[in-house]
Design goal:
The strands form 4 sheets. A 9-stranded mixed sheet has the order 13-6-7-5-2-14-15-1-16, sandwiched between helices. It has 2 domains: about 240 residues, Vaccinia Virus protein VP39 (Rossmann fold); about 40 residues, no CATH class. It is of the alpha/beta class and about 280 residues long. Bound molecules: S-adenosylmethionine. The site of S-adenosylmethionine has 18 residues, from strand 15.
Length: about 280
Amino acid sequence: MPGIIYQGDNLPILRDMDSGSVDLIYLDPPFNTGRQREDGSNSYSDSWPSMDAYLDFMRERLVELHRLLREDGSIYLHCDWRVSHHLRLMLDEVFGEDNFLNEIAWCYSPTGPLSRNFWSRKHDTILFYSKSPGQNTWIRQYTELTDNDLKRFRHVDSDGRKYKIVRGHCQYLDEHKGRQVASWWVDIPSRGTATKSKEWVGYPSQKPIALLRRIIEASSNAGDVVLDPFCGSGVAVAVAEVLGRVGVGIERNDDVVPICNEIMRVAADRWRLTWPAEVISS
Ligand SMILES: C[S@@+](CC[C@H](N)C(=O)[O-])C[C@H]1O[C@@H](n2cnc3c(N)ncnc32)[C@H](O)[C@@H]1O
């Protein structure tokens, strides 16, 4: 099934979708920055009359997202210091405290203006919850070993294979999967440090392909439905499609489908995968 992006306010669209029809949700809603977010011809308003108004907007949508998730599904809510404390309490309320799994810190490189009287705020928070305790799809993710890790493989066997001794056993370098990713992510640069990359299509607050790849590969299987109800450039839909999932997006702005298809081509080329049919609009 090709990916699809619905155009319009997400609330009525979510209300029309079937309960238990989604395996993984990623959402990167407005963060209540009080600004008009602009980049070239693309823009969206992120301004609310009050924090209460913003939270009411989010609560209505999170209740629907909870209904849509399958029992073994999970949700990642991307936000920052402005609203992460409010949204964590809201997720506890809607999904249940027992379903809290992680508060992930995505630490992007410290570019841009630095603050004068406090630590520069250079990470986003991604709140990760399951629908039911212990049932969520979970596939461990790994990064490359560091030079220090590599130095520990100081033995070489008669076949020339490097290994280290761990608790009395040989661990071979060529069988090592890499470093297991924990809840702080420092290896995925933001747009500020990767402006030359082809993936930046000029959407305000566009998130990196690598970030979505990590989330989708950790918490879904091939064929699963991945929903992004605030999909913006459609990067989550694009990555889901390239990885063999069914990507479903919702976006209030029109004209994001060509942007999403462009990102899909970049992701597919980067990973030398073939991309499926174009993402279509509805
Ligand atoms: C932070 S941006 C998402 C960026 C996206 N993750 C990306 O990587 O391109 C939030 C998006 O939510 C959209 N949006 C805000 N309110 C919406 C609503 N009620 N229904 C659908 N989309 C909405 C905005 O137009 C904006 O594109």
